[in-house]
Design a protein that fits this description.
Blueprint (H helix, E strand, L loop, with lengths): L7 H6 L20 H7 L4 H6 L1 H15 L4 E2 L15 E4 L2 E4 L6 H5 L6 H4 L1 H14 L5 E6 L1 H10 L7 H9 L1 H25 L3 E6 L7 H19 L6 E5 L6 H4 L6 E3 L6 H7 L4 E6 L8 H15 L5 E5 L9 H14 L3
Parallel strand pairs: 1-4, 4-5, 5-6, 6-7, 7-8, 8-9
Antiparallel strand pairs: 2-3
The structure holds coproporphyrinogen III (CP3).
Length: about 350
């Protein structure tokens, strides 16, 4: 078996014993790092996602600085939507779509495409990243879940109440279904391309799947997540499903065929582990805890490692992405605390 297969991260996802939990952080490449800001002085975010050499460089930055146990390819969940006909602009107020998707005409105007042709730069970037990371650090590929992508398409950007999406859900659910099915087809193809290009694991980000009643989650969100995860099984690439706000739905995730579930900080990790038997878990420190004192960061991280030891596997992570204002030294203290957990 290659050295990479013996990495803490891939062993953990296979449920094999490890001396300490592996750690990586959602949004680990980003604005809290001065070296990332330096790169951004000369390239826009959209171009950064589409330029393999630059995307490779920022993917490596947090690995060099903190020695994380996994790299995540630099891109955005909205990147694969542009060739469908929905190009987002990233301004200071977050992503914006000039023409939101609100009716059947808009939905039918979005077209699926072969990912190799529409976003070849993603496969190319993965090739470069794999070469640089070598046998030392596994690479995570990712995509947004169809539901989370649909929130951005329908609202035209981020949202507080999701009023357009919910109007569609409660008046024309078949339309929302049509959009989710179309996105599901595209995202499966996109993730299969990433697996072919050589990623060592994939994570599906479902940042906004948690805004629904469990009955609607089970009906609208879960079936297409299942189709994507089942459709990736034959690639052999381990699959992580991160659903923010999953606590009320854990019972629904029990029989989802994935190696690992990402858990946010609003649930007790011990309880989530009992609710997700047989699965590895990933999480679950509150990202805002990184504003706290070093003592508190260490204390909470140590407790999460202790709880995680009861799972078939525990990947240490935050419960959501790291924020731009976090001092990098605080992330450093977190990494050190997780490393120390193995020495106890
Ligand atoms: O994790 C990583 O380091 C890999 C890169 C990555 C980014 N976005 C880079 C990014 C990943 C995995 C994402 C996922 C993503 N993107 C999600 C799901 C996870 C989550 O955080 O909820 C979502 C919902 C998006 C959509 C998105 N992209 C938003 C809402 C924003 C604006 C808000 C913000 O943080 O700026 C982005 C922009 C974005 N994506 C940035 C980065 C580094 C900042 C862009 C910049 O450099 O100005």
């Amino acid at each position: 078996m290659s050295d990479l297969q013996q990495s803490l991260f891939l062993k953990t996802l296979r449920g094999e014993p490890v001396p300490r939990p592996p750690i990586w952080i959602m949004r680990q490449a980003g604005r809290y790092l001065p070296e990332y800001m330096k790169v951004r002085e000369s390239i826009s975010f959209n171009d950064l996602c589409r330029t393999p050499e630059a995307a490779c460089e920022v993917t490596l930055q947090p690995i060099r600085r903190f020695g994380f146990d996994a790299a995540i390819m630099f891109s955005d969940i909205l990147t694969p939507l542009a060739p469908m006909g929905a190009e987002f602009e990233f301004g200071n107020g977050g992503p914006k779509l000039s023409r939101p998707v609100r009716d059947e005409k808009d939905i039918r105007g979005l077209s699926t495409y072969p990912s190799r042709e529409g976003v070849p730069f993603v496969a190319e970037a993965i090739g470069l990243m794999k070469k640089e990371l070598g046998d030392r650090t596994p690479l995570i590929g990712f995509a947004g879940s169809p539901f989370t992508l649909a929130t951005y398409l329908i609202e035209g950007g981020g949202s507080k109440n999701y009023e357009h999406l919910k109007t569609m859900l409660y008046s024309r659910p078949e339309l929302l279904q049509e959009l989710l099915d179309k996105l599901g087809e595209q995202i499966l193809d996109y993730l299969r391309m990433q697996a072919d290009a050589g990623v060592d694991a994939i994570q599906l980000f479902d940042t906004w799947g948690g805004i629904l009643h469990p009955v609607d989650y089970a009906r609208m969100v879960l079936p297409v997540v299942r189709r994507i995860m089942d459709g990736l099984k034959d690639t052999g690439v381990p699959r992580i499903y991160f659903l923010k706000g999953s606590a009320p739905y854990n019972h629904l995730l029990r029989d989802l065929d994935v190696e690992c579930c990402g858990i946010d900080w609003t649930q007790d990790l011990s309880l989530a582990i009992t609710q997700l038997p047989g699965k590895a878990v990933q999480g679950n420190l509150d990202p805002l805890c990184l504003f706290g004192s070093e003592n508190e960061i260490r204390r909470r991280a140590t407790e999460i490692c202790r709880q995680g030891a009861a799972a078939p596997g525990h990947v240490f992570n935050l419960g959501h992405g790291i924020l731009p204002m976090i001092p990098p030294e605080n992330a450093e203290a977190l990494v050190d605390a997780v490393h120390a957990a193995g020495r106890r």
